[in-house]
Amino acid sequence: MRSTQLRRLRRAIGAAALVGVAATAWLGLVVTPPAEFFGNLVRLLYVHPSMAWVAFLAFGVTTLASALYLWRRTRRPAWDLLAAASAEVGVVFTGLTLVTGSIWGRPTWGVWWTWDALLTATAVLFLLYLGYLALRRVPMSEERRGVRSAVWALIAFVDVPIINQSVYWWRTLHQRPSLSIGPTNAVEVHGIMAVALAVSFVSFTLTWVWMVWVRFDLARRQRALEQLELAHAIAERLESVEAGS
Length: 245
Known about the structure:
Distance between the termini: 50 Å
Strand content: under 5%
Order of helices and strands: HHHHHHEEH
Shape: elongated
Helix content: over 70%
Number of helices: 7
């Protein structure tokens, strides 16, 4: 696809994401009814699970791109840049997941934060990927930074299945399935509530696609500019050496 077509596609995805998030807010706050037991607090569940899903998706892409960068046959700077871009967006959504979870926990559990297994593992995940982003800012060669960051990303992703299974491995305050379709002990989702939840997942996923695309393109342009400046500096240095000799 041509660059013009790609830009149009990116704009379309961004517009669709914006409309989807607005529709999620409208459905969640205005259209859907309160839950029988949770009341209006249930409206948080139209954003909290989808934010957690996007965080896991982002770190999954970071892990895959990192693995492709580590394998010499597929080692390309683009994989490293994609891993970093997705990790940045993942950190944002992990932070939002923790914030919305705390808002849910205050009226439900009586505290803003507790060292519950799932909450603690999620906080650890947030810190691990903050460390990943910090590592990328340490001065070193491009390839060395890419390799070390990729190894860190692979190690950090181990925490994702721990989070997913924590409600089964330990007795936690967090209920097992936050939402379910059909009669269970969780919040029952049907009708317009299921529509609002589906719109939330789609819209936040599109938001992730748009944010990663924009960040990746910015990183790619920044890398090209740095290489151009380096080549210019080397050329100037060679000219000064030749002039001096």
